[in-house]
Design brief:
The chain is α+β, with helices and mostly antiparallel strands and 269 residues long. The chain has one domain: 2,3-Dihydroxybiphenyl 1,2-Dioxygenase, domain 1 (Roll), CATH 3.10.180.50. The protein is 32% helix and 22% strand. It contains eight helices and nine strands. The chain has helices spanning 2-20, 22-32, 54-62, 106-116, 140-149, 151-159, 179-188, 253-259, and strands at residues 39-47, 67-74, 79-85, 93-99, 165-169, 208-212, 217-221, 226-230, 233-239. It has a seven-stranded mixed β-sheet with strand order 2-3-4-1-5-9-6, with helices on both faces. Strands 7-8 form a two-stranded antiparallel sheet. A hairpin with a 7-residue loop joins β3 and β4. α1 (2-20) packs across α2 (22-32). The longest helix has 19 residues, at 2-20. The chain is globular. The relative contact order is 0.17. Bound molecules: nickel (II) ion. Residues 41, 43, 95, 165, 167, 235, 259 line the site of nickel (II) ion.
Length: 269
């Protein structure tokens, strides 16, 4: 019964994700070639505020048998993250980050405080909280104010609770020899990849190589206007065996830092 609860949670997250990330469906077909695709991990985002922090999201997965397995810090982006793993290695890992709101300017803190005040009591304890989408009203003006300071703060304000990305396990993908091979196939089919930190983040020595598409764009209804903004992206991960011959299951801070840039409105390089 635990398995079906898990399956149901991931199915809800996937359906919600593809609604604003149509390229994920096409990529699924392109890389899967009719075979099922194994999901390496999903990523979730939140603000570090009482009752909606990283561990409040994590509690949903602890309940389903997951355990915390890694801690990460992104000083410049003002983020803290942890990843969770399930005892069954076939179950996707979960990477949860939170924005250290207290380190933002008072103007940004004020906007986020206004969003936070709109949450009903006990919001994050509700069973569907992780795929509720945006649970607050937000103006395009406030979105832009947040954007000027933190791409992450703005994305979360606009999209709320949902998977920020799913990840194709390249290890489990038939017919591809390398992440380079996957990237080339994607580019040949016209998909734009995130070049922040290079096309491939990490290497065999780090035991993890990652790449990602640039986020799709979605029309978002703000309180004052409709606007098209970056939504979600698809990630590709190739894991290498560690000294004990087991596939590395963690994440690399320097690579994850660049993967976050996939939802940026403004791209450098
Ligand atoms: Ni990821």
């Amino acid at each position: 019964m635990r398995v079906s609860e898990l399956d149901s949670l991931f199915e809800h997250l996937w359906q919600q994700y593809v609604e604003i990330t149509p390229s994920a469906q096409s990529i699924h077909a392109l890389l899967g070639r009719g075979q099922p695709i194994v999901n390496d991990h999903i990523a979730l985002r939140t603000y570090a505020l009482p009752d909606i922090g990283l561990e409040d999201l994590g509690a949903h997965f602890i309940q389903l048998g997951y355990e915390y397995a890694g801690d990460y810090d992104f000083t410049i982006k003002k983020l803290r993250a942890r990843h969770l793993q399930h005892p069954d290695p076939a179950v996707p890992k979960v990477f949860i980050s939170e924005l250290k709101v207290s380190e933002l300017s008072s103007a940004a803190q004020h906007i986020i405080g206004m969003l936070y005040q709109q949450l009903p009591p006990g919001f994050m304890r509700q069973s569907d909280a992780l795929y509720r989408g945006r649970p607050w009203q937000l103006s395009f003006h406030d979105y832009q104010m947040l954007l000027a300071e933190s791409e992450y703060a703005a994305w979360l304000a606009a999209f709320g609770y949902r998977a920020n990305h799913f990840t194709v396990s390249v290890n489990a993908l038939a017919g591809f020899n390398s992440l380079d091979d996957v990237n080339q196939t994607l580019q040949d089919a016209g998909f734009s990849l995130n070049r922040s930190g290079g096309l491939i983040k990490g290497d065999a020595y780090a035991l993890l190589e990652q790449s990602s598409t640039l986020a799709d764009h979605a029309q978002v209804q703000f309180s004052d206007q409709l606007a098209s903004i970056p939504s979600c992206f698809y990630e590709f991960a190739l894991r290498y065996p560690d000294a004990h011959g087991r596939l590395y299951q963690g994440f690399i801070e320097a690579s994850a830092d660049k993967i976050f840039d996939s939802t940026n409105v403004h791209h450098v390089g």
